[in-house]
Design goal:
The chain contains ten helices and ten strands. With 252 residues, the chain is of the alpha/beta class. The mean pLDDT is 92.
Length: 252
């Protein structure tokens, strides 16, 4: 039994008095400790899938299961202990008037967990930040440091699953590799399961065991890492994404 199972998921919004079918009949499964990537252009529905899992987007069809059980609505504390999300923009995801200490301690307080001081110090160490950063504010940190804090916050409740929504796209190129390597190390050390979104096949190739290519809200093609590495795609759209990603790498 897969840890995450998504079956015929559909998400429909009403925007400007118009129905928008953001995700249409998408199915996927993610094994425990696997890193699974969702890749596609902007508007392909990949981030909407993560938001639907968290209860931030309306599920209008299909089912999402964790450990074989449908996830509850509303999600509740049990879900938060098992699943956490790291958002794209570290500038927006941290409260500007809260110290790092407050940001990291809030999940512990909500869930009644003890040993706050020790847990915060350990979390900062785990993501490669000095413990002296504890009483700084987000504006006193770089973008990469803020994203490390966001990752630390997601790990405070020791979840099994991390949902990663373009976790490096808002960072400078020089910081992206550091953040991806940090995530890879944490996954190995903690036995985490990743469901990761990116528009960049190079990032997905570095991080993920399997990949689902999405276009216009639909699943186009699923690829293994080996198939991606050998450019063994079967659809024109997947091949075009691969070519665009290769061109970006050459330009860089």
């Amino acid at each position: 039994m897969a840890l995450i199972e998504i079956e015929n998921l559909s998400v429909t919004f009403i925007a400007n008095h118009r129905e928008v079918r953001a995700v249409q009949d998408v199915s996927l499964s993610v094994e425990a400790r696997e890193s699974f990537g969702l890749v596609g252009e902007s508007g392909s529905g990949k981030s909407t899938i993560l938001r639907a899992i968290c209860g931030l987007a309306p599920v209008t069809g299909g089912q999402i299961r964790i450990e074989g059980k449908p996830i509850p609505t509303p999600r509740g504390k049990g879900f938060a202990r098992k699943v956490q999300m790291v958002f794209q923009d570290p500038y927006a995801s941290l409260h500007p008037r809260h110290t790092i200490d407050r940001t990291l301690s809030e999940p512990l307080a909500i869930h009644g967990l003890k040993g706050t001081d020790q847990r915060i110090m350990q979390a900062l160490t785990d993501v490669g930040l000095p413990t002296s950063f504890r009483f700084r504010y987000p504006h006193q940190l770089s973008g990469g440091q803020r994203q490390r804090v966001a990752i630390a916050r997601a790990l405070m409740l020791e979840p099994e699953i991390l949902l990663l929504d373009e976790p490096t796209s808002a960072l400078d190129a020089s910081v992206q590799a550091e953040t991806l390597n940090l995530l890879s190390r944490l996954r190995a050390e903690r036995g985490l399961t990743f469901l990761m979104v990116s528009h960049d096949l190079a990032v997905i190739d570095h991080m993920c065991d399997r990949i689902l290519v999405m276009q216009h809200g639909r699943a186009v093609e699923e690829l293994s890492r080996d198939a991606l590495a050998s450019a063994s795609m079967t659809t024109d759209y997947a091949r075009s994404l691969f070519a665009a990603s290769a061109d970006r790498m050459l330009d860089g």
